[in-house]
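Sat 14:20. Reprocessing the chain from the morning session after the first attempt stalled halfway. Input below, unchanged.
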Amino acid sequence: MKNGKKLLALLLVLAMCLGLAACGGNNNETQGNNDGTTAAATEPAATEPAAGTEAPTETSGGNETTNDTLVVYCTQGLEGKFSPFFAASADDVDIMEFTQIGLMITDRVANPVLEGINGETRSYNGTDYNYNYTADVTVTENADGTVYYDMKMRDDIVFSDGTPADIDDVIFALYVYLDPTYDGSTTLYSYPIEGVEAYRSGMEPIYSLLIAAGEDNTDFSKWDEATQTKFWTEALPAAGEAFAQSIVDYVVNAGYAAADDDLSVITPNWGFEVAEGATLTDFFNVMLEKYENDYNVLSDTEAASGTLWSYLDSEFHVGIETGNSAPNVSGIQRIDDYTLRIVATEISAPMIYQMGTYITPLHYYGDESLYDYENNSFGFPKGDLSIVKSKTTAPVGAGPYVFQNYSDGVVYFEANPNYFKGEPAIKYLNVREGSEADFVPGLATGSSDIATPSYSTETANQIAGYNGSDELEGPVLTTKLINYRGYGYVGCNPNLVKVGDDPYSDASKNLRKAILTMISVYRDEGIDSYYGETASVINYPISNTSWAAPQVTDDGYRVAYSVGVDGTPIYTDGMSAEDKYAAAKTAALAYLEAAGYTVADGKVTAAPEGAKLEYTVEIGASGQGDHPTFLILKNAGDALAEIGMTLTVKDHANQNDLFATYQNGVAEFWCAAWQSTADPDMFQLYHSEGATNYYHISDEELDYLILMGRNSTDQTYRKSLYQGAMEIIMDYGVELPVYQRSECILFSSERVDVSTVPGDMTPYWGWGAEIEKLQVK
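Finished this time. Tokens:
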């Protein structure tokens, strides 16, 4: 259920090598877009000031904007976990990012920058941009199949407290991520680093052993009876209640229920029914019963903000030896004070993004007396991350800003004079929690300077009202639009839309292409009607923000489903919209005839065996037609009716009902949206063994191209492979890319010098990517 509830967001924690999103609530699909994705958010938690720091003075904080202070809105999703190791929610990651730097960044299309020290110049949207950062990364593919990732960092990095940084700070961080008891969101351990399995084996966190042993265990050789009793009667029930609360918070903050609703109203939005008056414990037990008392599966499947285990006290995370293990990770090799080599046992294309590991201060997050690389000691006792976790609420790093404190819904920062790119021009930075309704009026009235509201026609009209015009750059508010890193689509299950028994036959493909051709032609009108200029139609199953996305100027680029059954273009230059609609009907009828349908007098009159004259498309449009694809489907359905086919649009008021239709394989067609990751790996979605291959494609050539794309570090070669893979997907007629909408970054024109905002911002290069240059008036 997790994939459905997270609305098919294929999330990968890449903040360590991407430009600062900087409290961009829309980076995680905030509510109000009705396109199949929402943002996670939970209630804020208060924290104490970092050791040795004080809260800013009144002139640098609060709700006032001054000429040395930048005030930024974020969504109400702060959990207070601002650690580079344990930040989980999107807003917590943004807060943490202001204080940290890594070894590698990516450019505006998420392509890794490998020569960071001297910088690289790359063109985007017709403009050359220089990217410089903290390290050079050299990737070497060896004859034996192994891969070397050599990282040489600058020798002038200094943490905000004045302590010089070196490669040991990076090695310390790597060992935290790879510790057997690490339970944060980073999955470095899942990559093919030489020696990882040997290092992580032979030890498990005590909670894992307690769960495996069961509540009635009588073997107390590894823990005492008091520990076991406390776990089952106090710690685990409390964690279960907190886990259930995190789901409730997610549902409420996503807009599906109100905070004061009874749980019996809230939990159905997560796919569970509880009785009126039920408690959080009751809710947790209902979930546990569904998973037959398997706590691990429940935790992995239903996590909204953190796993079940993340809510346990730290004493239950301590590692217990269960066997032999290696004393180190053989693939992490210290070359000198500023150089590190990571050895991979095989090529893994997404692994390059892991080279952005944060340069985290060993002296703060760890124990320097426990760091001795030569003797396999890495800054903390293996299996005990308590010292690292104790600093979760107060981050320290070498980033552009220094964390001061978090209180009353505001996070206070001060510029870092030791930042390697130079001290930021703006002295103070305050990040304020706020609701979506606060964002536009808050900037217009001067209580904040930057926000990322969900962009819609309503939002645009609100901004225009304050500006007195519909110009993007007005006297009160300046709007910057960027493409969202995902796209909306119409999917099809070939096992249900086919001719005969073979879903992959030419006849079956022709049936699906007939319907998708008809839907495709109405995309321009539908998206323009719903989004106006804030979204665009796309033609390939990949976000336009990706470096692997086909461009209009590429050889062979064409509009989706714009070729007839005879291989000739359906449309010609200069065609009016009405002419295109007529041409699409003619092409669809030809496809249906080729699929085996009986055609007479311009209509189909009978379907071949295994096919039908009526198909249904599932959509989550709130039961009211409120969805960017709804009008498209209605118009396509009307046109198909004219040639004898019926396309029924089934509008689900509850999104989870929609998700269940295609995840369980009962939807013929459906509308949803994917959220993209920086690496365009297609395995999960389209490989025959992909976990979310809802299209049920099983094609040897497609599988081969996807795997070859995974097994190369050459971006140009990978792009050509993915181009071929996308052609196969489209030829099967199982997906129609529909639209890519825009996100909005809103600036106060009266307060922010917008000439200092980065040019050509993208989801991977946000306003905070060059925050040291930003200025207020």
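The CA atoms of residues 157 and 420 lie 6 Å apart.
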